[in-house]
């Protein structure tokens, strides 16, 4: 039976009191926007002032399918540990699993190294069949490994350099860059916006089945429900979704957003979904992100994905391995940050026999659009 994000994931609070050595009495609970002031206090002191999850529309959207709540540990009525969990359906085309992707895992600096995150994470994991961590730091990878997560690899990044001059203030050694793509002014009548995925639900399902045959892949289930939640209703980003249609069918799909970089007098395009056969994908790319309508003022376009075939398909459109460019094009641009260079992918399964049944990592389909990997670092108008 097919699982639904909106029907199969809202969990009870599971509030309970425990004793933790070195801390005292602690309450495990799920809290939401009614406690957002307490969460903001925690974010401001543990992370940084005006941390993005303190923005109520984003908080409510991100955790919508978990009843709009995050898991926390409370001590003396204060939040001392936080585990955001974004409910996700994992699938291989044959089976579906209730899972979550980790979002914002941290502990108050005064209560670290006391096993609090192991306690909180264990409580959250007990409610699901699978969990995934994307983009964790070295410290995070070590923590998750100690809790049974397996490290599978890193996202592959593909980059298309559009305008070298626009990279001047945001890339290291930009003089070594060369343009890798050509921009077109031509329109393609077969390419149309895909703004309401529920209206083309059957076509979306058929496209996913054709590109990812059952049991040959693994990843977050792509469905109209997922796309409408993830992209059509985002409270901050203006994602643009387009499909290549032919003979009444959806042949390929792309989702992307334009990211302005005021400090660099430039912009970049972040692709978060690419699904389709090679020829259809490159036709869709040529008519959207490589079209003058969308590419004006762009320094580069990038795409992060685990699927090797799709990453290889788009080489034909001028997307290359960024390591071949002799420069560093930052993953984070607001503000520009050269520290982050990889997105490691880790997976936990309650049933450990599942690990042996998974296809090779290069056949998975996960992207930067999963979980909270593609989210703003600043509050709107900040």
From TrEMBL:
InterPro entries: Acyl_CoA_acyltransferase
Name recorded for this polypeptide: Uncharacterized protein
Naturally occurring in which organism (per UniProt): Candidatus Yanofskybacteria bacterium RIFCSPHIGHO2_01_FULL_39_8b
Taxonomic path: Bacteria, Candidatus Yanofskyibacteriota
């Amino acid at each position: 039976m097919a699982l639904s994000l909106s029907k199969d994931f809202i969990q009870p609070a599971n509030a309970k009191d425990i004793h933790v050595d070195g801390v005292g009495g602690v309450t495990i609970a799920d809290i939401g926007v009614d406690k957002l002031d307490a969460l903001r206090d925690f974010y401001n002191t543990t992370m940084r002032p005006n941390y993005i999850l303190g923005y109520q529309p984003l908080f409510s959207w991100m955790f919508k399918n978990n009843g709009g709540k995050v898991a926390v540990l409370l001590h003396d009525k204060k939040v001392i540990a936080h585990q955001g969990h974004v409910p996700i359906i994992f699938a291989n085309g044959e089976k579906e699993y209730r899972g979550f992707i980790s979002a914002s895992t941290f502990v108050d600096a005064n209560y670290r190294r006391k096993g609090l995150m192991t306690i909180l994470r264990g409580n959250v994991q007990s409610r699901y069949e699978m969990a995934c961590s994307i983009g964790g730091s070295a410290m995070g990878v070590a923590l998750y490994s100690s809790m049974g997560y397996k490290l599978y690899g890193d996202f592959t990044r593909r980059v298309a350099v559009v305008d070298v001059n626009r990279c001047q203030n945001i890339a290291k050694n930009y003089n070594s860059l060369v343009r890798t793509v050509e921009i077109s002014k031509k329109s393609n009548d077969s390419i149309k916006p895909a703004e309401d995925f529920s209206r083309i639900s059957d076509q979306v399902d058929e496209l996913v089945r054709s590109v990812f045959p059952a049991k040959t892949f693994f990843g977050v289930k792509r469905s109209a429900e997922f796309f409408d939640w993830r992209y059509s209703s985002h409270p901050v980003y203006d994602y643009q979704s387009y499909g290549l249609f032919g003979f009444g069918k959806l042949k390929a799909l792309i989702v992307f957003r334009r990211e302005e970089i005021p400090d660099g007098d430039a912009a970049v395009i972040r692709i978060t979904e690419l699904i389709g056969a090679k020829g259809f994908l490159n036709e869709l790319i040529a008519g959207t992100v490589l079209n003058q309508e969308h590419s004006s003022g762009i320094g580069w376009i990038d795409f992060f994905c685990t699927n090797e075939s799709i990453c290889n398909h788009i080489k034909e459109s001028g997307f290359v391995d960024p390591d071949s460019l002799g420069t560093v094009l930052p993953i984070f641009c607001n503000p520009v940050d050269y520290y982050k260079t990889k997105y490691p992918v880790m997976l936990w399964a309650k049933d450990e026999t599942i690990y042996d049944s998974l296809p090779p990592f290069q056949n998975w389909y996960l992207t930067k659009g999963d979980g909270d990997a593609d989210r703003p670092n600043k509050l709107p108008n900040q």
